[in-house]
Specification:
Pfam families: AtuA, DUF4387. It contains 19 helices and 31 strands. By secondary structure, the protein is of the alpha+beta class. The chain folds into three domains: about 5-120 and about 160-255 and about 525-545, no CATH class; about 315-505, no CATH class; about 580-680, no CATH class. A hairpin with a 5-residue loop joins strand 13 and strand 14.
Length: about 675
């Protein structure tokens, strides 16, 4: 019988999402070797790296971390956070450390070693790498510009080496800057001698918390158990959830450009030979994943991300009469027409704009309530949900605009929208559930603030006008002209929100691999140790990461992401019978950013028969997919078949870089509507 050798709990998908204390308590009923959470991402846009601000509410982050520390004090193993403060820059990390000091003091944490790993890089080092030809593109854009790089905040995405070094240096608590989310989980497993292929794949499943469950949610915990026979089993902690081979295999596709190849600083995770199995009705596992020691740029390469300020931003949300909609120029986003996607909504599809608007006596009160409502709304899981990457599309980063009203009270508004028919069918119930969750989890937020969900569609259109400029006088003039152009002679309703000063606009300036191993080994990711007694932290030493080669040599499988599992770009021979709606054939139809420059769409089918019908129809050959999505054929990176979970993955070059000034959907989570409308021939 296989012996349990390691057991780890992922607290949630990102620190601040929230998770039930009861789930973590159930995890602690058995052995736990580490408590880990990803604390951030680049998904929300460059603003958070450029400013050093956090995406989630401080109260929510502190509540999550407090529960993790309370659990950590009960085990011998470490507590690990990566991409601290959202973007993982130096200021982001310091924000998280202030929260940690409060929590340590409140919980009486004494005589513990803490490691802080810096991920920020001097722009001068990056400019030298640019000069030396040591930056490699990861796809289309952003274009490298020396002036932009000088003005940027730049971080590197660390792999396992800095984390393992910190743990071997005796750290009980690790606070890492920008991190590869999978490395947070793989590092301690590999330190304990667990096979790298298994460790990386387990890390990928765990990094979103319980999102790999059925039903899935990033606002819950998930446990992985590692056994000495080379298997890993995933254990949900909420009795209402279960892990199945299907759910684990499907999640293995999530946010990745390719279904079976994932790229990390130390090599390539290859899953073409992975087996997904059920242990019982509620738990499922994996085995035979491979981690490959590949050629250049692996090892060693580090992905760099850079962000800089573009200018101040002014926004107006103009309520229109439906008869005036035709007046508005085609390039202006209007909820009810083209608020969610650049392409106008087809006649057979409904687009709903959702503007969450709050009012309070203080700015903090208005913004906190709006933020809580919108965070719950985007990720709320409901029965029959298909768009599991997110329920709504945000056009702005940050997504919230705070302002003061004429009567002296404060307001906040979050514009968003969706075309997902399943969400729209359930919208009333989802809205009620989200309000109930906020009332239960954060009752104080509702004590001194009120809210309204403003719905917009073709009968109640709302135009979004936004202007960016570095000069405040010119910004006001340009925005007035932009509003006049958008209205084009129409009159905006009296309840429109006009001339709102939104947060400054930032842009991505860098999303490239750094290939200079000397900089990676000798400069990046310095580790500082502290001895901690509550809020008193005493510097106790420094260290450099120790790099060791890992991964298999001589791997015989295919590592070419342009050919492995590729659906041939060949039109079907003819029309078949028994046409079906893809929406009826699929369990999941989702879209999501795969980095800042690519979008990936996953279709997970209900049955083997329906999956094979879709493949036989060949509706997913690249040229046809381009036509369905309204993209040029050159934008299709690949369309792939995935037998392990009866899925089809489509990866495309993003029409714009994520969170650009003309953005409709920062997270790329609501770009699947054209797929939902597809009709599949019986083949």
């Amino acid at each position: 019988m296989a012996k349990l050798i390691y057991r780890v709990v992922s607290a949630c998908g990102a620190l601040g999402y929230g998770f039930p204390e009861a789930s973590l308590a159930r995890a602690l009923e058995g052995r736990i070797d580490a408590v880990i959470s990803d604390a951030g991402s680049m998904d929300a846009g460059p603003y958070y790296l450029g400013t050093g601000q956090e995406y989630f509410e401080r109260e929510a982050v502190k509540a999550d971390f407090r529960k993790m520390v309370a659990a950590g004090e009960r085990i011998d193993g470490p507590v690990i956070l990566g991409s601290c403060g959202m973007a993982g820059g130096r200021r982001n990390v310091e924000w998280m450390l202030e929260v940690a000091r409060e929590v340590f003091e409140e919980l009486g944490v004494r005589d513990r070693q803490v490691a802080v790993i810096d991920a920020e890089l001097d722009p001068a080092v990056v400019l030298q790498a640019l000069h030396d030809g040591q930056l490699q593109a990861t796809g289309k854009g952003p274009e490298l510009d020396a002036t932009a790089l000088r003005e940027s905040t730049i971080v590197g995405q660390m792999g396992i080496a800095p984390l393992i070094t910190a743990l071997e240096g005796g750290a009980k608590y690790v606070f890492a800057g920008r991190s590869c989310d999978v490395a947070l989980f793989a590092s301690d497993m590999i330190r304990h001698g667990i096979d790298a292929g298994l460790a990386y794949h387990v890390g990928h499943v765990l990094e979103c918390g319980a999102l790999a469950c059925d039903p899935g949610s990033p606002s819950d915990c998930l446990v992985a158990e590692i056994y000495d026979d080379g298997t890993a089993v995933f254990v949900p902690l909420d009795p209402a959830r279960r892990c199945t081979p299907y759910s684990i295999a499907a999640h293995s596709l999530y946010e990745e450009s390719h279904p079976q190849l994932q790229y990390y600083p130390e090599g390539v995770l290859a899953m073409a030979q992975t087996e997904f199995f059920a242990r019982d009705e509620r738990t499922a596992g994996i085995r035979h994943s491979h981690f490959v020691h590949a050629g250049k740029p692996w090892p060693l390469s580090i992905k760099l991300e850079g962000a800089r300020r573009v200018g101040a931003r002014r926004v107006s949300l103009l309520r229109l009469a439906p008869e005036d909609l035709a007046r508005v120029p085609a390039d202006v986003p209007v909820y009810g027409r083209n608020g969610v996607q650049n392409q106008p909504v087809p006649k057979s599809t409904h687009e709903l704009g959702i503007l969450i608007e709050t009012r309070a006596d203080t700015r903090e009160g208005a913004e906190t309530l709006a933020s809580l409502l919108t965070h719950y709304l985007i990720h709320y899981g409901y029965a029959g949900r298909k768009a599991t990457a997110g329920n709504i599309a945000y056009p702005l980063s940050p997504n919230l605009i705070g302002f003061q009203r004429d009567d002296g009270s404060y307001g906040a508004v979050v514009p968003s929208g969706t075309r997902d028919p399943v969400f729209l069918e359930n919208y009333a119930r989802i809205k009620a559930a989200v309000i109930a969750l906020v009332r239960e989890e954060f009752p104080n937020a509702l004590e001194h603030a009120t809210f309204e969900f403003v719905e917009a569609d073709a009968e109640r259109p709302v135009a979004l006008v936004r202007t960016v400029d570095r000069d405040p006088v010119r910004l006001a003039q340009r925005h007035a002209a932009d509003v006049a152009r958008a209205l084009n002679g129409a009159t905006a309703g009296a309840d429109s929100l006009r001339d709102l000063d939104a947060a400054d606009a930032y842009e991505w300036t860098l999303y490239h691999l750094l290939l200079d191993e000397h900089v990676i080994r000798d400069t990046m990711f310095p580790i500082t140790y502290y001895r901690v007694d509550g809020k008193t932290w005493v510097r106790a030493g420094e260290a450099r990461p120790v790099y060791r080669e890992i991964g298999e040599r001589g791997y015989c499988g295919n590592l070419d992401d342009r050919t492995l599992s590729l659906i041939a770009d060949v039109p079907p021979a003819g029309e078949g019978a028994a046409a079906q709606r893809l929406l009826d054939m699929a369990l999941v139809i989702r879209s999501k950013d795969a980095g800042i420059n690519r979008l990936t769409l996953d279709v997970v089918f209900r049955s083997t028969a329906q999956y094979e019908t879709a493949l036989r129809s060949n509706a997913f050959y690249a040229s046809n997919v381009a036509a369905v999505l309204g993209l040029p054929a050159s934008a299709i990176v690949g369309t792939y078949f995935v037998d392990s979970c009866q899925a089809i993955k489509i990866t495309v070059d993003r029409p714009n870089i994520s969170a650009s000034l003309d953005e409709h959907d920062v997270f790329g989570a609501q770009q699947q509507a054209a797929l939902e409308a597809m009709i599949i021939s019986g083949g």
